[in-house]
Structure formats: C-alpha cells, structure tokens
FTM protein
Amino acid sequence: QEAEKIRIKITSLGLIESRITADETIQQLFVECRLNNFLAEETPLSLPKPAGGQRIHYCYSTVINVDKAHNRAEREYLKSILLKPDLPADSLKFTVVSDPPEDEQDLECEDIGFAYVSLKEIFQKQRDIIEQDIDVFDSQDASAVIGKLTVTVEALQALQSVHEECRKD
C-alpha cells in the first residue's frame, strides 16, 4: 500500500569545482539517506568521483516503510512533522560520503556534503519530488554548494495518510 511507504531514488551526483574536486584523497563517493535518526540507507556502490561538470549515476532506490504495525516510531515522526510547524528536523537528509580507496583502508569514510528534502514542504505543496536536482552543501561550509544530487522522493501519499490519522485522533 502506497500510503505506508516513502520511496526514495538517488539518480545521480554532479560536482562543481570546489575543494572536493581538488582534493585527491577523495576518490570514491557513495550517498547515504536518513530519515531523522531512524534509517540510514546507502547506495550499495561507491563510484569514482566525477570531474567537474560530469555526473556519476547511482540509479539506486529504496523504500522507507511507515506502516503503523511495524514502523510506529517512523510514523510518529511523520506526525510530528505535520503537527509541529517549528520542528527543525523535517527533512530527509542525504549525505555524500568519501569512501577510502581499497589500498588505504586505514582512512575513515568522510562526510563531504549534505543535501535535504523537506517532507513538510512536500505536504504543503501537495507534490512529490520527481527527478529533481537538489543542492549539496559542503560539510565544512554549509553556505557553499559543492554539487547537485538528482533525487526522487515520493512521500505525499504517506504524509496524507498520516495527516488523515491526525485528524481522526
């Protein structure tokens, strides 16, 4: 049932010239997606960092279940997004992560950028986000855009279902 799911698709990532494209220790990238503190899904592959102006294609999709029976906490979180207009954490967070090369496994994975999709905005506009470029902000300078992540977030039906439930409660 669609009302019990949030579908997320990470299509591609493009970088613009920045400290990231210049940093030779950053070679492989993967993307993690998180709903509040719950779920971290990540692209199964880390791909070679694209040159400025080019894109790497993940074509990865996942589903976050928000049904009452098995995922009550996630559903309650969605309710809080709709009921508390000032809740700061109302977004899906995408993290672009640098994956150390095979021969340098002593290096740590490093978060290099963040992108966000507001679930509250999807509900307010009554429109899912389909194949849309969102800004990726530098993890060391939140005002600097380092690239674009193309994503799809289909959450409207789940949010409408949760909203309907709130009205009944």
